[in-house]
Design a protein that fits this description.
The complex is a heterodimer of chains A (202) and B (234).
Chain A lengths: L2 H9 L3 H23 L2 H17 L9 H22 L28 H19 L3 H12 L4 H8 L3 H19 L19
Chain B lengths: L3 H11 L5 H13 L1 H18 L14 H4 L8 H35 L1 H8 L12 H15 L19 H4 L2 H20 L11 H29 L1
Helix pairs in contact in B: 1-3, 2-3, 5-10, 6-9, 7-9
Classes of the chains: A mainly alpha (202), B mainly alpha (234).
Chain lengths: 202, 234
């Protein structure tokens, strides 16, 4: 069954068809949420909320990119979660040691298929990138996550974030500029092939 | 430091968002401006780092259950009939209660209103008026002498045209006293001695029981249908 048929069935209330779509998109949705929110538990909540919301409003989908439409519900769910966090701040993002200090390579960023050395480097790099993403304003972060991490084109990003194409271009450029500045502080962690030039011209 | 407009152009250029003319203009500039070319490399490197970021896999399935989305099982066509009958019977039952409690009050109010008028205007010995409840009048008359110490025979002056005479009647004679007494005693005693208004239900209780039975049976049928439908749905 192709995506269009599944969407049509879901629009008629077929939950099984929608669940098939969920299984196809859940990694993308969760990955987007975790990069926007910077927290796995919050991302799970946001992803679940996004799917529930998407099922309830799937009748409003009028064609086009289903991924972009789904990403819109995810970003909305993430914004809701961020607003909730702002109202009721809870535990910090970074896990802490028993001494109350932030862990450099938290286990929650680990990938089980790597050697300890690779894992350590990857953890630190990923942690550094996430740290820089978290430092961006939410609107910029959303655009850069959708465009550069999820690989969506500008039109899809515009649909997902409900802003005009020109704004997407501007926000993406600013986000990349800020990330570049932030990542310069973690240059020793960057792979040699992607190492940024020492003297930036930006 | 490049202008932000240049950075935006470079960013869009990397993503293939410039048209042919804009791209060519920028490429010409890039060939002659090493600083601009370096900025392009920086943006490209930043984008590459982000694209190499490992994708997080969902730690669990986010598939939805019917309960999560509030879906209800499809109900048979008979269900709305029971729902309607329950609602209709409930409304009717409420109306019967309302009718049984409101209608007697209206009837009571209509019957009680003339009573004081009778007491004041139609007492024994007053000559005119009259009519209405004779027993009430008599009772009032018998009570009155006790209060005024007038002989029981005093009302025998019933032939006296009291209402048409002047105040002399009022001032002298036991008849005048006895006439005043009923004025005070009559309203109360007339009310007390009125035959009790029958508080009969306008709608017989049998109908109320029938309606109640309809409500209960329809409600039970609805509950059974819902339960059966959800069992079959699961």
């Amino acid at each position: 069954m192709d995506e269009t048929s599944l969407i049509q069935s879901a629009q008629k209330g077929d939950l099984d068809a929608f669940n098939t779509l969920i299984l196809h998109y859940q990694d993308t949705v969760f990955n987007t949420a975790v990069r926007i929110l910077g927290d796995e538990d919050l991302a799970q909540d946001a992803a679940q909320e996004a799917f529930i919301s998407a099922f309830r409003s799937i009748s409003t989908f009028r064609g086009g990119s289903f991924k972009a439409w789904l990403m819109r519900t995810v970003t909305n769910a993430c914004y809701d979660e961020l607003r909730r966090q702002k109202r009721r701040p809870t535990t910090p993002l970074e896990p802490e040691t028993s001494d109350g200090e932030e862990m450099d390579s938290p286990k929650w960023l680990a990938d089980p298929n790597m050697t300890p050395a690779e894992k350590s480097e990857a953890d630190e790099l990923e942690h550094a990138i996430q740290h820089c993403l978290d430092a961006l304003p939410t609107d910029f972060r959303t655009v850069v996550v959708l465009a550069d991490i999820q690989g969506m084109d500008y039109t899809e990003v515009a649909v997902a974030s409900k802003v005009p194409l020109g704004t997407i271009k501007s926000r993406l450029a600013r986000a990349r500029l800020r990330l570049r500045e932030c990542l310069r502080g973690f240059e020793e962690l960057l792979p040699a092939s992607f190492r940024l030039e020492g003297e930036s011209t930006l | 430091m490049k202008k932000f407009h240049d950075i935006e152009l470079l960013s869009s250029y990397l993503d293939g968002q410039l048209n042919t003319a804009e791209s060519k203009r920028l490429e010409t500039r890039l060939a002659s401006d090493p600083e601009l070319a370096s900025a392009l490399n920086d943006i490209r490197a930043t984008r590459s780092i982000l694209r190499k970021l490992p994708a997080r896999k969902a730690p669990r399935n986010f598939t939805l259950t019917r309960k999560m989305v509030g879906l209800r099982p499809p109900l048979p066509r008979t269900y709305p009939i029971f729902r309607f009958s329950t609602a209709f019977a409930t409304i009717l039952l409420m109306l019967t209660f309302a009718a049984n409690s409101i209608v007697p009050r209206i009837a009571f109010g209509g019957a009680a209103a003339p009573a004081p008028a009778m007491g004041y205007g139609g007492g024994p010995g007053m000559g005119g008026g009259g009519g209405g409840n004779d027993t009430a009048m008599q009772a009032a008359a018998t009570e009155a002498p006790a209060a005024t110490e007038a002989p029981l025979e005093a009302p025998s002056a019933e032939m006296i045209p009291a209402p048409t005479t002047d105040g002399t009647l009022r001032e002298g004679g036991p008849a005048a006293d006895s006439m005043q007494a009923p004025k005070e005693a009559n309203p109360e005693s007339a009310l007390q001695n009125q035959p009790p208004i029958q508080n009969e239900a306008v709608i017989p209780i049998t109908w109320q029981i029938i309606l109640l039975a309809v409500i209960l049976l329809s409600g039970l049928a609805m509950w059974l249908i819902q339960k059966s439908a959800s069992r079959r749905w699961q």
